[in-house]
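Q: Hi! New to this. If I give you a protein sequence and the SMILES for adenosine-5'-diphosphate, can you show me the bound structure?
A: Yes, paste them in.
Q: Okay, here:
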Amino acid sequence: MKVVKFGGKSLANGEGINTVLEIIEEKIKNEERIAVVVSARGKTTDQLENLLEKASENEDFASAFEKFKAYQISEYDFVDFSEEFKNIEKLLEGVRLLGDYSAKIKDQLLSQGELMSAKLITEILKQRGYKANFTDTRKLIKTDDIFGNAQPLDALSKENVLEHFQEFNGKTVNIVTGFIGSNAKNETTTLGRNGSNYTASLIANYLDAEELQNYTHVDGIYTANPDLVPSAQRIDQLSYNEANELANFGATILHAKTIIPLIEKNIPLRILNTFNNDNQGTLITAKPNKEGMKSLSVLEHTALLNLEGRGLLGKSGVDARVFRALGDAQISVSIISQGSSERGIGLVVDAENAVRAVKALEREFESDFYSKDVNKISVVDDVSVISIVGQDLSTFHKPYDALIRNQIVPLLFNNTVTGKNVSLVVKKSQLNKALNVIHGEIFEICKKINIAIFGHGTVGGTLINQILDSAATIEERKKVKLNIFAVSNSRKLLLHATGIGSEWKTQLEEAQQEASIDEVIKYAKLFHLENLIAVDNTASEAFVQNYNKLVDHGFDLVSSNKIANTLGFDFYKELRENLEKNQKQYLYETNVGAGLPLIDTIRILHLSGENITRIRGVFSGTLSYLFNTFSAEDRTFSSVLKEAIDKGFTEPDPREDLNGNDVGRKLLILARELDLQNEFNDVKIKNLVPEDLRGGDAKTFVSRLEELDATYQKVKEEQKPNHVLRYIGDLSGDLQQDKGELEVALVSVPDDSSLGQVKGADSIFEIYTESYGDRPIVIQGAGAGAAVTARGVFGDILKLSEKK
Ligand SMILES: Nc1ncnc2c1ncn2[C@@H]1O[C@H](COP(=O)(O)OP(=O)(O)O)[C@@H](O)[C@H]1O
Ligand SMILES: N[C@@H](CC(=O)OP(=O)(O)O)C(=O)O
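A: Thanks. Here is the predicted structure of the protein with adenosine-5'-diphosphate bound:
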């Protein structure tokens, strides 16, 4: 004999019930001996609960009840539900008059769902010529008096079931109501929500079934609830112990007690999908899993109580009193956490019992309030418990760290001493994100990094395309999924939770949404996006003012914009402190030398205690080109400059390069990497634009370039032999002090020196340190250009992704 159980969604009108009937018929035709256990159909139990609430609040339930009836009858008007409908109506009317209901009444009402379901399947099978027998488990499963969560009395129930099946089996298929039973007074009880599979496993036990098949609407048991974690994976096989832990910790797919009756008789349980014929499902047997299984389960509707008081410290018997008080009120505690300080005891109970639990504790500890041993019993509503089944504390830091990085701080956590299990209590609003973060971390499947990109000029646009082009390869090789969920310019904002595609530019132009940092933050919250990175590719000072807000809302920062690092030192410090407080990072490798690994090298040298004594170099690709060419060729300064302008190497107004401010800013950024507290004013800058050409617009300046020739020709000719001109930034002085000496100057260097040998538009940086003496570390290469800068920004994003 096999016991076959069908869940609510499987029995829903349409495809569900039709498939269920096909499955049953097929088994009968194959001469399999089966007993069928059914849940209420579709959402019947929830709907009955809603009707009950409506009635108790004296709301009109007539139209909802009509809809309910129509759903039950559906196309099966040959089945007579008049008795059930009458019962339901009578109960609801009574509740409406009283304005309240008891657990006993609720059980009577909810039981109608399973009764109608079993009756319907029986009648249809009979109509199709099969021998089917409606089996009401209120006559078979005897339970205690705990309405809503009744415990079956095994000996008596078993006797009844065996007797019933002896009488009504053979070629007849029993269609059995799940979920319901009755107490000694024959009053209807229920075994608790999701209890039909418990009924099925009890029946399987009593009948010594060879297998229990649980037909549901998912492909089996997953590493987490697939409704909440899209990347959850189906588990092929589980041991009884593992499945039992999962059931106990809230995986609604199994009632908490389903597994126990199966263990005793060694009955395999198969979870199958009614709607997916080819699927293997999950097989649960006594066989232990070699590798050990991990899975996440959730208790969603819970509340956290906290009993606080100085007098609790060291006082004996407090726990016993807590449990007694709650036990007497029939409230079970799912987690208890006790500190040894006066902060007291934390308890997790079902949300619906929270108010009663507080009352019970207040009553129990009344005298302790007077003596001030207890000063507060507080409740945090709307919490959820996530249990990582199969997790011990040795590697728990990984999911825990990932939660903190994502700004989810558990309210409480707790582990089992034997067995492997860690439970965390989180705010319900954070449940979805927390589950996905933990799941991503534990299963080391693809980590999703959610990126918002601000500014899509040459660097930003190139970056977006670089990311889109390499995302698939990175996902495969590094198991990191780069998801650009937001792109914004100063006017508009494009949002896409699952990631923008190659059409982003036109979509942004057509976007209705105005640019707004608050919208980006709100969107990330709404879609529970984890591992957030904001990328600033603007050159805007106004945008920098958003950095702290982004950090406060869980974003790490990557920026090619230099402004944040060159504003006043106060801002620089405040941002660092805020990053530290929020445990966020800010990477800006491209601020100096574009994609060259300069800032990282300096940071590592400095952190490792290596004394950096001087940094000198050609910081600007544009000015590198200008002076390399001017020094090497026999041409006027203006003709070389004109060529640079025509090739687009300069800013639209070339004076922004020639005034040296950009080099000055880069120098300041490096100085601050060494913990120097310099301000921009401290940088001595040689402005290459003569004073009389500094005013006026760019066009006029460009028309007067020849006026620069005499000065620079003279400088060139006055050099020593075999020397060339270079425009350099130089950080020197005693770099162990608060401030260094920063200078940007036009200098003449030997043509065979490292600075003298630079070619084209390359940048070069010499890092002098105590250990390297007078032979500096030299970093040289293309230090400008959209493609290399975008690569550098991309590199920062990947660096952050690895740490997440
Ligand atoms: N680890 C898990 N694996 C699969 N489903 C899970 C898991 N945890 C929770 N669930 C939930 O259990 C539901 C299936 O159980 P249930 O609704 O009782 O099905 P049925 O009514 O078909 O018996 C799924 O829709 C899913 O939301
Ligand atoms: N109808 C009941 C019992 C039930 O559906 O059990 P299962 O989830 O095992 O099908 C409920 O909704 O709680």
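A: The chain has four domains: 2-42+115-291, 296-442, 447-585, 599-784. Let me know if you'd like me to explain how to read the tokens.
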